[in-house]
């Protein structure tokens, strides 16, 4: 009878142990990713025509046109260098000084 009682306590310990591990993983891995994704979504929703942007490939440019999920970015002083790209490729935005 004593063995059955100690086995139940051992099982409860393992359930709590696993719950603590999953809680730790949530706060270490999942929660920061969600915060970063939310921050990126806010950044993408704040962009407008005329903003200076930095792309994931390291290019700086100015947004000259936008649609729902794409932007046309002008790079450098050459007015002929206009490239359409996805909004998700933008990692940093600088608003023009008014």
TrEMBL record:
<keyword id="KW-1133">Transmembrane helix</keyword>
<protein>
    <submittedName>
        <fullName>Preprotein translocase subunit YajC</fullName>
    </submittedName>
</protein>
<dbReference type="GO" id="GO:0015031">
    <property type="term" value="P:protein transport"/>
</dbReference>
<keyword id="KW-0813">Transport</keyword>
<keyword id="KW-0811">Translocation</keyword>
<keyword id="KW-1003">Cell membrane</keyword>
<dbReference type="GO" id="GO:0005886">
    <property type="term" value="C:plasma membrane"/>
</dbReference>
<keyword id="KW-0812">Transmembrane</keyword>
<keyword id="KW-0653">Protein transport</keyword>
<comment type="similarity">
    <text>Belongs to the YajC family.</text>
</comment>
<keyword id="KW-0472">Membrane</keyword>
<feature type="transmembrane region" description="Helical">
    <location>
        <begin position="12"/>
        <end position="30"/>
    </location>
</feature>
<dbReference type="InterPro" id="IPR003849">
    <property type="entry name" value="Preprotein_translocase_YajC"/>
</dbReference>
<dbReference type="Pfam" id="PF02699">
    <property type="entry name" value="YajC"/>
</dbReference>
